[in-house]
Design a protein that fits this description.
By secondary structure, this protein is mainly α. The protein contains 10 helices and no strands.
Length: 218
């Protein structure tokens, strides 16, 4: 029952934060939205800041679980990597659709939840790197002078760049799929670098060497 009540409070907090923004929301707002007394709400969260941190953790944990499911599939690299990064993009799209305060809800610039966002960002990057490393280990791709985490960082950078222009969500989704497809195609097409060959003697040098040998054995 306690967990169910906490979830009810967090659902109410999300509705209030989405409507009013975190700063303008009060504990009274959350209590009314949860249809609970203020005292009952305080039995489960310490204050508004605590409710916001708990809600942010729930949002990021849910997104990470979806990304982990995509990473665990047996699909080719392009599909698995896209599945991971699409979760990150879809979270932003969902918050943008729900609220004009999406950036505040993500907590990217909030001292209250900056650590949660940083951990989420790190976990997504490490998950993407693990997908790429697995594809390399299975022989699906070859990485030349680049580590899986570096490729993952490129994918994360692409996703973050697309998050800055969400006027047309379908176009943004298509660009992410195309970008990840290009990454994967480039890795799949890569071939091992040829070893550098030592320069051998030219035909003139070979002729001179033969003459020297003849002079040694008249």
């Amino acid at each position: 029952m306690s967990d169910a009540r906490l979830e009810r409070i967090l659902d109410a907090a999300y509705a209030c934060f989405a409507r009013h923004g975190v700063r303008r929301t009060t504990m009274d707002d959350i209590a009314v939205a949860a249809e609970m007394s203020r005292a009952a709400v305080y039995q489960h969260v310490q204050n508004k800041d605590d409710a916001f941190r708990r809600l942010t953790s729930r949002i990021f944990d849910g997104a990470l679980a979806q990304a982990q499911a995509a990473a665990a599939s047996d699909a080719p690299l392009a599909e698995r990597l896209h599945g991971v990064l699409a979760v990150k993009l879809e979270l932003v799209l969902e918050l943008m659709a729900d609220s004009p305060h999406a950036e505040e809800l993500l907590g990217t610039g909030s001292r209250l939840t900056a650590d949660l966002y940083d951990n989420y960002d790190r976990d997504m990057r490490e998950l993407a790197a693990a997908v790429i490393a697995d594809a390399r280990d299975r022989g699906e791709v070859k990485l030349l002078d680049i580590e899986p985490v570096e490729v993952a960082e490129l994918g994360i950078a692409l996703t973050k760049g697309l998050e800055g222009d969400l006027a047309d969500p379908e176009t943004t989704r298509r660009r992410l799929r195309q970008g990840i497809g290009l990454f994967a195609a480039g890795l799949t097409a890569a071939s091992p670098r040829r070893p550098r060959l030592e320069r051998g003697p030219s035909w003139r040098e070979e002729g001179s060497m033969l003459e020297d040998l003849d002079n040694l054995h008249p």
